[in-house]
Specification:
Layout lengths: L1 H13 L4 H12 L5 H8 L6 H10 L4 H9 L5 H9 L4 E4 L2 E4 L4 H12 L1
Antiparallel strand pairs: 1-2
Length: about 120
C-alpha cells in the first residue's frame, strides 16, 4: 500500500491539489467521511477500502491501473512509485500552466505549432 500511496501523493502534488480538495472529492464520490488527515494516511500507506483508493485516483486524475498495480506488487517501492508518477507521459494543465512530463521534443514542436497557427 505504501507504493500506491506514494504514487497518489506525487500525482496530487503534480496536479497542485490540496489534501482538502482530494478529501472533498472522495467524500463526494463515496459518501464516506474522508478528511485531510485520512488522505495523508493513505499517502503514507495506510490501508483503505478499494472504493476510497479508486476515488482518490479519480480525484487526482491518476492512472487507475498504475495505482492498483503498485498496490498489488509486493516488490514495488515508494521511490519507484514516485518516479512512475513523474514519468506519466501526459500533459497536465494546472492553473494555466502546461507541465510536460517525458514528452518528446518533436511532440512539443507539433503541439506548439498547432496552438500558434
Amino acid at each position: 500500500m505504501s507504493a500506491a500511496g506514494a504514487y497518489l501523493w506525487e500525482v496530487r502534488e503534480l496536479r497542485r491539489l490540496s489534501r482538502a480538495e482530494v478529501a472533498a472529492a472522495i467524500r463526494e464520490q463515496t459518501g464516506e467521511g474522508t478528511n485531510e488527515v485520512q488522505v495523508l494516511r493513505i499517502e503514507k500507506g495506510q490501508n483503505t477500502s478499494a472504493a476510497v483508493l479508486a476515488a482518490f485516483a479519480r480525484a487526482v486524475q491518476g492512472d487507475f491501473e498504475q495505482t492498483f498495480s503498485l498496490l498489488l506488487d509486493p516488490e514495488a517501492t515508494t521511490d519507484a512509485a514516485r518516479e512512475a508518477a513523474r514519468r506519466m507521459g501526459t500533459v497536465m494543465w494546472n492553473d494555466g500552466v502546461v507541465i510536460f512530463s517525458d514528452v518528446p521534443n518533436c511532440l512539443l514542436t507539433i503541439l506548439f505549432t498547432s496552438f500558434t497557427m
